[in-house]
Amino acid sequence: MTRFMLTTAMAAMLASGAWAESHGAAMDQPGQTASADLINTDDESIGTATLTDGPAGMLIHVRVEGLTPGKHGLHLHAVGTCESSEGFTTATGHVGKVEGGHGLLNPEGPEPGDLPNIFVGEDGIGEMEAYSTLVDVASLLDEDGSTFIIHAQGDDHMSQPIGGAGDRVACGLIKGQ
């Protein structure tokens, strides 16, 4: 029995090595990366976001300080500009906007720019990590760029056009690394 288990374990290890080799660099190292420095409406730095391409999507990590406690909508927006004097509206709509399709729970969506909420604790610190199969780093670094937008309230992932998330309270221009 022990010999069978060892043989099975060895076969599994060899097979996984062959699979990893056949799938190239995707197993060896992460793909393209980007980051964003997040600012609030007073142009003060409040956090960072990092994006890393994976084999079938993109890993997103966001950390912020100084936001009100609770959940906040977080979206990827289609234009790379963060003008606080304009309430960050120059970042326009979501990446891959689909009319009537906003929301992770929406049967008509989701849009590639839809992300889970970020939760902020009583100490004003929030952190989240998510994986999206709807977007990649290269698509966010297109000619007009892209941004992260954080909203004043949580996103209900259904209501149009932004899930009831309210005003834009933070913005981060996504830059390649």
Give a verbal description of the structure.
This protein is of the alpha+beta class and 177 residues long. The protein folds into two domains: 1-30; 31-176, Immunoglobulin-like (Sandwich), CATH 2.60.40. The protein has helices at 2-22, 25-28, 137-140, and strands spanning 33-40, 45-53, 58-65, 70-72, 74-77, 118-120, 125-132, 147-151, 168-176. It has a seven-stranded antiparallel β-sheet with strand order 5-8-9-1-2-3-7, with no helix packed on it. The longest helix has 21 residues, at 2-22. The radius of gyration is 19 Å and the shape is globular. It starts with a helix and ends with a strand. Mean pLDDT is 86; it is low at 1-27.
Q: Any idea of the CATH class of the largest domain?
A: Mainly Beta
Q: In the CATH hierarchy, what is the superfamily of the largest domain?
A: Superoxide dismutase, copper/zinc binding domain
Assigned CATH architecture of the largest domain: Sandwich
Beta-strand content bin:
25-35%
Residue share in helix: 10-25%
Distance between the termini: 51 Å
Shape: globular
Key structural traits:
single chain; 177 residues; alpha+beta; Immunoglobulin-like; 2 domains; 7-stranded antiparallel beta sheet; two-stranded antiparallel ribbon; 3 helices; 9 strands; globular; disordered N terminus
Q: What layout of secondary structure does this protein have?
A:
Blueprint: H1 2-22, H2 25-28, E1 33-40, E2 45-53, E3 58-65, E4 70-72, E5 74-77, E6 118-120, E7 125-132, H3 137-140, E8 147-151, E9 168-176
Antiparallel strand pairs: 1-2, 1-9, 2-3, 3-7, 4-6, 5-8, 8-9
Give a summary of the structure in a few sentences.
The protein contains 3 helices and 9 strands, in the order ααβββββββαββ. The chain has helices at about 1-20, 25-30, 135-140; strands at about 35-40, 45-55, 60-65, 70, 75, 120, 125-130, 145-150, 170-175.
